[in-house]
Amino acid sequence: MVLDNLLGGALINIGMLPVEHNDPINAKILAISEDKIEGFVREPFEEIAKRSGIAVDVVMARIAAMLRAGTIRRVRQTLLASNLAEGALVAWKVPEDKIDSAFDWMFQRDPFSGHVVLRSTDTASAGSDYKLWTTVKVPQGFSLPEHCELLAKKVGAERFRLMPAKGIFTLGVGHVRRKTIEPGSKADQPARMIPVQIVELTDHEWGVLLALKREFAPEEIKPSPWVARANEAGVSPEEFYRVAEGLSARKIVGRFSTFLEHVKPSAAGIRVTRFNALFHWAVPPGREIEAGEEVGRHHILTHCYWREAGPEFKNVNVMAVAHGTDKQLLLDHKAAIDQHLRLSDISISYTNVFWGGRSEIKPSEISPHIYRGWLAHQLKS
Q: Rounded to an integer, what distance in angstroms lies between the CA atom of residue 288 and that of residue 320?
């Protein structure tokens, strides 16, 4: 069915709009909307339009169409949730006959697990028997180790390794604009580490934050999108803006982002990426920040952290993620980063790549109220 959508006075035939990420107009929009709108912006779609050179009515119509089609899996204001809730990357050692059911349980029944990925290495190596990897966040006032102990019992995990971030060097997506990046391409200056520091919010701030972070439905892609969210939070638009801008200044708010479905093919069979590589490096103790800043400046990376992986992983302490459609090209990118570290006089005692397979992604819940209800239900069952 062809739908007409009135956006800012322009009648746009939604049913006829291209919805693939590689359409030229969509690609221009996505190159900005994936990870270039920093902090809280009062008119995010106008900002995307200004920076992409595409009319705002077209921007809104295209984003809504891609969201309906599943090309974009979600549109939302991201949070630097590491500063709101205790979190970690967790590697799980699960018996082979339980790994699929463990994956399903983590994705479907634990709202505090975000990324859920099955990973493998090209050869048997340190930690390669840890095949299930998740990100977990537990709201303030609750215990991350206890949460993971509960999960381990639920899914039959034999062991797990918690790897909380000690510092963040790179955090963004931008799959479309990264398609053409050459190995070795990097920023002029080292990345700057964002320390992980838990902050406390008032009940009033939580009310605004929970409305702010909720995903957008296609019909919410319109001018002044935060006015309805202010009503939802029970505050005036100006008060909503005041609180949101304050949260942004405190580095609690991340980016306004459109997240592509980059794991599964589109309805037309087109993939954004095929390979998801988790790079590991073990660098000398005391040089983690310097190494992370040098790794994190490379443009191909969507994530880069200082994490302590422990002896199971040969004491890896810097990790990064890259995506692409060509496995060898990703390995070439890693080789360029390895070489840059050596030229920076940072030795690498061990390195590895964990490749992503089956994968599901959802935002981790961070509300203490929701956690209390979930935990009570789990302890009963």
A: 13
Measure the CA–CA gap between 28 and 33, rounded to whole angstroms: 9
Report, as an integer, the average pLDDT of 136-144: 93
The answer to whether position 381 is within a domain reads no
Q: Report which DSSP code applies to 325.
A: S
C-alpha to C-alpha distance for 264 and 201, rounded to whole angstroms: 37
* 277: three-class secondary structure by DSSP: strand
Residue type, 145: P
Q: Is residue 155 one of the residues assigned to a domain?
A: no
**Straight-line distance from the first to the last Cα atom of the chain, in angstroms, rounded to the nearest whole number:** 45
Whether 35 is in a domain gets the answer yes
Please give the pLDDT value at position 254: 86
Could you give the CA distance from residue 263 to residue 56 in angstroms, rounded to a whole number? 28
Taking residue 316's Cβ as centre, other Cβ atoms within 10 Å add up to 23
pLDDT at 321: 95
Number of domains in the chain: 1
How many CB atoms within 10 Å of residue 4? 9
> pLDDT grade, residue 209 (50/70/90)?
very high
Euclidean distance between CA atoms 67 and 258, whole angstroms: 9
pLDDT single digits (tens) 40-83 = 999 999 999 999 999 999 999 999 999 999 889 899 998 876 77
Question: Residue 302 domain-assigned?
Answer: no
Strand partners, 202: none
- Give the domain extent around 210: 23-79+205-260
The structure tokens 């006089």 sit at 345
pLDDT digits (tens, 9 = 90+) for 157-191: 999 999 999 999 987 655 444 566 899 999 999 99
* Integer angstrom CA distances of residue 219 from 6, 63, 204, 206, 229: 11, 11, 27, 25, 13
